[in-house]
Fold this protein.
Amino acid sequence: MDARSLGPQRPGDPKLLRRIRAHQSWYRAEVLNLDDWGVTAPPHSREYGSILTSKAAESGANFTSVMAAEAYRRRRLTGWGVEPYRCERYLTSSQTLTLNLFAPLAVDLDWLNRVLDSLDLAGVGRPEWLEIEYQPRFLRAGRRDRTLADAFIKTASTGIVIETKLADQFSRRWSTVVGSSFYEQVNAEFSLWNSSQMEFDTPARDQLGRVHALGALAATSSPPIIMIHHPLDESGAKNAQRYRELLQEPSLLKILDLEHFIRTMMDAARSDAQRNIAEQLLLRYVAHELSDDAFSILEETRLGRAVGPRMEPTT
């Protein structure tokens, strides 16, 4: 394809984000058959090829299944937690990735159960429900902080906390674990972290610590935590690995690349509809060989350009 159909890019982005943004621009042009692209959230309103127009967003084009679109609409009704502009328009949104991955599994717990079994998580018991952008109601009522788990699975005996990353980085949001009496109380009750090593000195440790504590309160136990990262994101996986050093039980942390998770979904599928959902996820997020030629042209062009606009959040 002509690289110009990908639309405006951000030559000043880190390489991972440039690659993912280019593939999402390719997906918009070649798979969604959308010639036009949208703009970033106000007040900047810059055009980029990986952002959908308002018309495409209203049609639900950012969601890879009916279940994901419906889950997004339901989640919006429950209050704070999703960012409508980015979730509907930004093809690079990790929040949209979470909805696309887990909404189909949330409505078919048998499928979810087979996925967990394949990931060696059968010991947690059968899944009872799955919620996206989750915070327990008792935490909302107390307004402890605004930490949410990207997804949380309640099982028969515990729960599973899930953090997903597409191209964004770990970040501190509203609180930190160190020096917080709230998190010290959580650790005293559930023994998540080695008290002698409670050094949440990186964004990954801090964010994973907060969502893990949230999951422990919801599960009333020390739950497993899964971090799903893009297969090209080696640094994200390494940063998450540092959280393992703080855990009293290191096996609680499972780090998976996105392609492995989607292929596990496909292997656990029992219908053409389920297999089609997994195939669309592979096409959308990891089939970068299909956009390699266009990306190569973009990279060659980038070498002769000045650094582009400052990177903005992708979720």
